[in-house]
Amino acid sequence: MGHHTRRDSAPTIPSNPPPQPHHHNDETTAAAAGEPIDLPCPFGTLEGLDIDDFREIAYEIFFTACRSSPGFGGRNALNYYSSSAMDGGGEGGGMGSPVKEKGVGMAVTSRVKRALGLKMLRRSQSRRTSSVGAAAPSSPSSPAHHHGGGGSPGAAFSTVPGAGRTRVPMTSAEIMRQQMRVTEQSDNRLRKTLMRTLLRLLEFGLLLHPSTPLDPSNQFATRLRDIIAAASTKPIDTSKNSESMRSLCNAVVSLSWRTHDGSPTDTCHWADGFPVNVHIYTALLRSIFDAKDETLVLDEVDELLELMKKTWSTFGINKKIHNICFTWVLFQNFVLTGQVEGDLLCATLAMLNEVAGDAKRGDREDSYVKMVGSVLVGIKKWAERRLFCYHGAFHRGSVGLMETLLPLVFAAAKILEEDIVGFVAVDQDKAGDVSNVTVDSTGNQVDRYIRSSLKYAFAKLLEKGNYNGITFEVQEVAEALINLARETEELAMKEKVVFSPVLKKWHPIAAGVAAVTLHTCYGTLLRQYLAGASPLTNETISVLQRAGKLEKVLVQMVVEDSAECEDGGKAIVREMVPYEVDSIIFNLLKQWMQERLKKGKECLQRAKETEVRSKQSYIPTLPPLTRCNRDSKFTKLWRKATPCSVIVDDAHLSASNEGHHPRPSTSRGTQRLYIRLNTLHYLLTQLHSLDKTLSLSPRVIPSTRHRYTNRRHAGSSSSYFELACSGIQAATQHVSEVAAYRLIFLDSSSVFYDTLYLVDVENSRIKPALRTLKQNLTLLGAIVTDRAQPLAIKEVMRASFEAFLMVLLAGGSSRIFSRTDHQMIEEDFDSLKKVFCTCGEGLIVEDVVEREAETVEGVVALMGQSTEQLVEDFSIVACEASGIGVVGIGQKLPMPPTTGKWNRSDPNTILRVLCHRKDKAANEFLKRTFQLAKRR
């Protein structure tokens, strides 16, 4: 494909050298041509030539090709007639010509504009006019016509200045001169030289972009380079016998007549090769746009296109190449003029239908396939960049452009996929961008546009609100998310009202896809927020509630849009991962409760570590085992000299002096333990009440992780808080026990353990201790709640019995018992039992008291036995406990261990009774058997 001229039309060399070429990078060249950077020329860029150069060259070639036409120096008027708006006409075929009346340029309508959907500029007079004198125009044989260019294109008419001027139609030559922005001076020079081809064009056509591959060692190419280089510093001698002219002509002619195989040809390629000729021809095609308003196409477009056909043989262009070039020029001008004229887009689509028909034909050259592929890929990529973010590219007023842009993209994609597959494969290999060239289907591609544009619009919301950079307080983050939810809802409504009606023509659930996309976008941010939010706050609840409202709007949008789908919209709904607001709030509440329980456990653990909550801490230390000491002589003398009551210590006297008006000895620490019992019982009561409420709720199902899931059916009081209830009950038991031992061994020690049976039994009986005990039990009943009293009093009873046993068995060196004391001790213990049997109204049943008293009664019974019987019983149980059976000759009885679990069958218990027995036989047995020392 290239510039062709017949053998009888040799190239004409210009007489003067051109100015030096301008060097621009790709962006500068694009800007100089008026092209935005995101719409690169599909034919590539030529370093050294700008749009003005191409326009001048195009006009020169156009003028030369049309020199036989009126206004260009020709003699005959134009007479082009066509029966259709799209006349094939072989290589010279193209857009149809208008129907004309008599006279030059009196077009009534334009079939080209009608076919492309372009509006007429002026209905009353569609032909452009110029002001000339009243004289009649010159005849075709005037000097101007014979000379072929002695004046401007308007020189076909008289131009005498002054009055009497009138408006007459402009010739095609003058229209083209003005449209191509050629000055009258340049036009005059052109008409004098007839065809002024720049040395720069020769360089591009014959050296840089030749049709026939050029051998770098070609001598004619070397000679032409030298001539061009020399012309930049010194004008060429253009005289008839000039050596430089002969050398230049020889080099140009030799390069022009080359063929691939060296065979003879009748065609010369003098300014040849892709993309030089295409750049020149598209510069020529741009002349159809009104110079004053480039969004409009001249009404004379039919006649101008007919004239342009005359350049086809020079450019090596046919109808198919013209159609793709014309398609690009229409689309390019739509972009360059601000994308405001929808008619240009419609005209591009109409021409693209012509290109689709051309592309299906089999007689396609490789250069044509490359050209079509480049143009369509350029159109498609530019359009898709807008469609992939149509929320930013279009608005309510310009959404109509989408209705034309979408079918334009689909038409281009269809041609690329079906008709020029080879080019698409090569283009993919080079660019590695498959998504921008091929599509699966119209619906799927629109689906991609929707999802991409909504993500773009959502990102713009984030950018506008600076949500990405939020590092403030939790409250501010929550407010930002709430505002974002509102803006997202507004964006969804805008999509539904403005864009979805257009997109629904190609996608059945366009609004549904948009709703799903926004749902996913906001959901991502929501989950990120929840991942870093505190367990439960008012701000978090507000965010979740607003997110739930947004989700309902989006789900409703999907449901309404997919009502007519075959599956009822199930497929698209499955893409929406629910926010699960209710579930999240429930889980947050659960997490909040668990955190509070954890803190409660930590506080409880700290309290356990700092408090003494064990009964062992109140039980006195057991004294060492010693023999009972006989009365010394000093003691006997003292007893004779003083009454027995003087021997009793001050503590005993103090307790006795209280008489019948004792005071309770319960300390504040013990009372706090009583209050703690009340708290535990209150918690237990509340759990039972909550458990009953939950058991009546059909939506609440008890946990299946423990074995008592169906306890309510088995008659249990709790099935939801089993572990909590059992823990509280264990705590109640423990607190009751500690409070009882504190009351007896600490608060009441002065009247019980410290004074009972001190020195002798007769003078230190239990009655004073019982009076104080009764007062303490009365205070306990006043503080402790009714349902907690039975356990608390029962533990006081156990502690009292434990204290009574310790007085008998581990009371220290001040306590000495004889066999005769047994009856008094038995009576005292019966009195102690009676206190608990009569305490309150059946708080402790008599059977329980008797069962707890069995151990004490057994020890008291031992104190009534003889020393001999005690020694015999001890020997038997000690041998059995140690496992030796019977003590042999010379073998000693083993010392039994102290377990603290007193029992009449326990050898250590019997041994302690012997140690406290005021008896010679007991003293001798202990000395002989265990070498126990006497008490001091």
UniProtKB/TrEMBL annotation:
It holds the Pfam family TPR_PATROL1. Residues 1-27, 120-165 are annotated as: Disordered. Signal peptide: none annotated. PROSITE patterns: MHD1 (PS51258), MHD2 (PS51259). Residues 763-874 form the MHD2 domain. Residues 130-143 have a biased composition (Low complexity). It comes from the Eukaryota. Residues 541-728 form the MHD1 domain. This is MHD1 domain-containing protein. It comes from Rhododendron griersonianum.
